[in-house]
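Running this now, will post back.
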Amino acid sequence: MKRHIISLLAIFLFFSCDSFLDEKTYGLVVPSTYPQSISSLEKCVNALYSINNSMYREAGCFVACMGGDDVTTLPGGNKGAFLQFDIFNAQDNNDRIEKQWDTAYDVIKQANVIIGAMDNIKEPTLSIEYVEAQKNRALGQAYFLRALAYYNLVRTFGEVPIVDGLTIDYELTKAPFGEIYTLIETDLINAEKLIPADYRTAPNASDMEKTTYYARASLGAVKSLMASVYLTWAGFPLKDNSKYALAAAKAKEVIDNANTYGYRLLENYGDLWKWESGWKEVGNAENVFTCHYNTSVGDWSDGGTESNGNMLAPASMFPENFGGWSDAFAELTFFNEFPEGPRKDATFLTSGQATPESPVIGWDQFTASHPYYKKYIEIPGFDYTNMSAYIDWWSSRTSQVIRYAEVLLIYAEAQPMADGSPNQMAYSCLNQVRNRAGLPDMTTGLSNTAFRDSVVMERKWEFAGLEPCARWYDMVRTETVAATTAKRNSKEIPVVGAPNDQSHERYFAPIPQKDKMLNPNL
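Update: finished.
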């Protein structure tokens, strides 16, 4: 399988040359010997987060989630890759699916560098306590992000190869689901032992850790991801009902310690998506794990890297009428069924004004004749009365990978499935999310199945529009892809493939063609 062994910042070939043709090399750095110091280990960790950013930095990173009933796209043009998944006709030569595959394995390879490097690090001038603390936290972050990458892979592609080293192996076979989920679980259990609740108060924390605490995985993030993994493990394809109890327990640990971790629901759902209150600099109190970007570091044209900036905002889900790309926007059935209230108002862009002098037009006058997602369009300089004014296609906007609302809804779904009926805490968790959305408390006395279905529906509205815990993943784990797609509005582009909730056809994305050509075992 073709993979990049050499990853950003972590493993370089450094050349010191007197001339272009000088063949002498100095400071050859290879995975077996790098890093050797705490300073170089820190660079490896920074690089790991930079690579992880690439998993969430553009709509193409979520292309397989276009099968969800919340998003659709335009016909023809450069939207073909998105359309293939939207109409269930995905091909293995889809160039966008390569991004989901490649970036996840890039994270895994970089994490493997760190995990395998601990014996290389020698720091005789530093205290043993400081060195061990730094090594442990770097190791914990590598385990966490490797687990996250495999979680994205297994939910998107199904069974995939497990890469646990740094060499290229063109004969790897796909690991079974159980083995992949067990690896993810093991990595997170390891991370849970090594990552602090707060880097700012952690013993022997480095200045870098204290400064970038908001961008690093905390103990709360580890437990939250574990809860999500267990919830998915309990659904299709493994359907291990015992994992519901584990999902509820991990989510409860986060909820019970929310004050320690600094988590809470924002009072106003719309504040999640605004610059000042939602994602400026350190983000907001609802963020459990996020990807932070900084375009001032440099873009493609001046030596920067892709992971510096976020292309998901503002152009990707912005109407073409105002200079956007229209990669994805809301399906009509989804929009029409979405409960009215402040959450719907904050989720959808239903009108627009090109310039202060031009008239306001409704969504039916947009080029696509669909509502768009408002969540991603506000960056500094954006003006709702001057929406055609060019700002940039490349932003420093944070991607919220895990939100506290998800933790609340994981507990609400998993607890009744584990215990047979929803308890008071499950109702409270669900109602906190509903009440913020302007909805009343959920009806009491529901069966565990009816309550679970209500929670899944709440997730549908809460995380609409290609958030990282995408609606598509819920449809797959609950085996409702075909049933949901059957409600597709007749005005949408007709479905070509036929998803099947019994045979699970069209449930997983094809592995990229280029990798299958190099390794027939895939």
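Residues 312-393 form one domain. More later if anyone needs it.
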